[in-house]
Specification:
Blueprint: H1 2-9, E1 14-18, E2 21-24, H2 30-42, H3 51-69, H4 78-86, H5 90-101, H6 105-123, H7 128-134, H8 140-151, H9 155-170
Helix pairs in contact: 3-4, 3-5, 3-6, 6-8
């Protein structure tokens, strides 16, 4: 909404405004571009011209979408999914991502999965088995091992800490 509003203020016509992507119908001059960029920065957004940075953001957005917002299981593997969404060879995307971000796509994906697992543990609505299934882990043991590797805690210990904090806060 912010992006659409700023484009309209500048009298710019657009055909697409999606997460991380805007397609403007007419060409814009450097003054309009700078005005748009400073207006977006006030809202915590930024204009990206560099095609490589745009690709990196798209990769991140795809992973975040898959992990945090998709209720469906990913039917293809992540590399095929990213490749087909972006129309680039996965090896190229993986190398670009690693060079720019300093971590692999897989590590970025795993860290987001673990953050999502933490959220689900805190909500306390699903068992660890249900969480493992929902997050597409082959087993609870696999999830637990990955969780411990990333956080230093087992999922059950993480859950215990949450309950202890809540109890301590209630006793204040």
């Amino acid at each position: 909404m912010v992006v659409k509003s700023e484009l309209e203020k500048l009298g710019l016509h657009y055909s697409i405004v999606e997460l991380g992507e805007v397609e403007i119908k007419e060409s814009i001059d450097s003054v309009q571009k700078e005005i748009l960029n400073s207006a977006l920065k006030k809202s915590g957004l930024e204009l990206m011209d560099d095609k490589k940075n745009v690709l990196i953001e798209k990769i991140k957005n795809i992973i975040i979408e898959v992990v945090h917002y998709s209720e469906d299981d990913l039917k293809v593997n992540l590399s095929d999914h990213i490749s087909s969404k972006l129309g680039h060879d996965y090896t190229y995307l993986a190398n670009l991502f690693s060079d720019v971000v300093g971590t692999t796509i897989e590590k970025f994906f795993i860290s987001h999965k673990i953050e999502r697992v933490k959220e689900l543990l805190v909500y306390d609505e699903l068992s660890l088995t249900e969480i493992a299934y929902r997050m597409n882990y082959s087993s609870v043991a696999h999830l637990s091992n990955q969780f411990k590797k990333i956080t230093g805690l087992t999922p059950s210990h993480f859950k215990e800490l949450k309950h202890k904090r809540r109890t301590m806060l209630e006793n204040l």
